[in-house]
Amino acid sequence: MSTALRDLIANPNAAELELVARYAMLPQDARRERAFEAFAKQGLPHRRIEGWRWTDIKAALPVIETPATITVADTLVTDGALIFSFTPNGFTWPDTLPDGLRVLAKPEAQAFGGSETMPLGALAAALSGGKTKPGTLMIEVTGTALPRLHFRFSGAGEANFARIQILLRDGASLEVSESYLGGAGFTASLLEYSLQNGARLNRTIYQRGTTAEVLAATASVQLDEGADFTQTVLAFGAKLARIETRVMHQQTGAKATLNAAYLCAAGHHADLTTEVRHGAPACVTRQVTKGAVLDAGRGVYQGKFLVPRNIGQKTDADMQHNALLLEEGAEVFAKPELEIYADDVECAHGNTSGALDANQFFYLRQRGIPEAEARALLTEAFIAEALEAAGDLEDVLREQARAWLAR
Q1: What is the distance in angstroms between the CA of the first residue and the CA of the last residue of the chain?
Q2: Can you tell me the distance from the alpha carbon of 234 to that of 91, in angstroms, rounded to the nearest whole number?
Q3: Alpha carbon distance 103, 121 (integer Å)
Q4: Measured between alpha carbons, how far is 163 from 218 in angstroms, rounded to an integer?
Q5: How are strands ordered across the β-sheet holding 269-278?
Q6: Mean pLDDT across the stretch 354-359?
Q7: Rounded CA gap, 195 and 215, in Å?
Q8: Average pLDDT, stretch 319-324?
């Protein structure tokens, strides 16, 4: 089996051969096989694939090995949060759960309908599980006043894979946070969120890594009638980090808010990719992405709104991306897209990149503020809008951004 799948990958590198070997060690399962086959037909994404032209995973991951251990504090953990921890060597979860929350850790894989369009999501679906880790962690939410669920991906090792499915029943509400703290040479996660009628979900992502790590965090979100999904991302990048979110408006009146900020220093690469399909009438999407990049850092933004004919009528969608190139040698690549076939819609997008405002900088310097502090203040103010929807975690994210800017 492993030989046949290996043969599907054109010119496999050492990392891809290692992934095939890891798959071969897991229990045989038809659903797991279909997911891995979808990945193997393409292999690790590379720059010759349009959606990955600026984020070449194959080049960044020639081999899978444990990087130098670096401890990063998990700043999103607060009192009362229910912590689910995924490491290269195991998985832990809370001993007790409140009413309105049901968790099932299934050893086997589940079918993944997005395998063809989300290759690293398919890889996570195929390789999650084994030893003490579940093949699929399934969570059903029926309550409204529940503690925040916190998913932590950390720990030293070669690779870390996880798959989580969260179903919010009619009228349920939940806060979820995810921390990607590095430590593994390669981390791939797949989170699938399904919101039924009137459900509400607030998702916050914090990502930090070193220049020796590769991360692919993939999410699929399905929204039924009146569902409300809010997402906030703060990413500092890694050798290569891609946070990909695909949203499907399935029924009338669904709303999605997708905000993000990326701050990239030298040697750090952060890719924020989103795709929203307005597959029902009168759905709303709002998206704000802000970035700031230093010399030898790279930020990537790819956003797409798809509005089909007929079923996408009355769509109301707005996409904005703004980036600061703080130093010579900083790189920002942006690709906003509107693909609209319906004729009764309100859709807009904007994209800018440039330096700090010279007049604002002069104003602060004239009032005795040192140059580095003035740059930090202006940059923090610039990205602040992208973090406002994080609720109780907004202050935590802003503090982390402030600490990065101070350095």
Answers
A1: 50
A2: 24
A3: 21
A4: 10
A5: 101-106, 136-141, 157-168, 184-195, 214-223, 240-249, 269-278, 298-307, 331-340
A6: 90
A7: 26
A8: 98
Q: Is the pLDDT of residue 2 over 80?
A: no
Q: Give the CA distances from residue 160 to residues 7, 90, 342, 379, 385, in Å, rounded to whole numbers and listed in that order.
A: 24, 9, 42, 33, 32
Gap between the Cα atoms of 232 and 212, Å rounded: 25
Angle between helices 30-40 and 14-24 (to 10 degrees): 170
pLDDT at 1: 45
Token pair of 104 as six digits: 């099932």
Size of the chain in residues = 407
Token pair belonging to 388:
């406002």
pLDDT value, residue 407: 79
- DSSP-assigned states of every residue in 365-376: HHTT--HHHHHH
Q: 3-class SS at 401?
A: helix
- Nearest to 268, CA basis, from 210, 195, 182, 205: 210
Amino acid letter for position 314: K
Structure tokens at 77: 């953990």
219-233 average pLDDT score? 98
Q: Among residues 32, 39, 46, which one has the least CA distance to residue 9?
A: 39
3-state secondary structure of 388: helix
Burial classification of residue 367, based on how many CB atoms lie within 10 Å of its CB (0-12 exposed, 13-18 middle, 19 or more buried) = exposed
Among 70-84, 292-306, 333-347, the minimum mean pLDDT is found in: 70-84
Stretch (H or E) spanning 60: helix 57-60
DSSP state letter for 177: E
Confidence at residue 365, expressed as pLDDT on a 0 to 100 scale: 86
- Helices (runs of H) and strands (runs of E) counted in the chain: 8, 19
6-64, pLDDT tens digit by residue? 678 888 999 999 999 999 999 888 999 999 999 999 999 999 999 999 999 999 999 99
pLDDT-derived band at 3 (thresholds 50, 70, 90) equals low
CB burial readout 122-145, b (16+ within 10 A) else e: bbbbbbbbeeebbbbbbbbbebee
Q: Are strands 255-264 and 269-278 parallel, antiparallel or unpaired?
A: unpaired
- Give strand pairing partners of 133: 130
Q: Quote the mean pLDDT of the chain.
A: 94
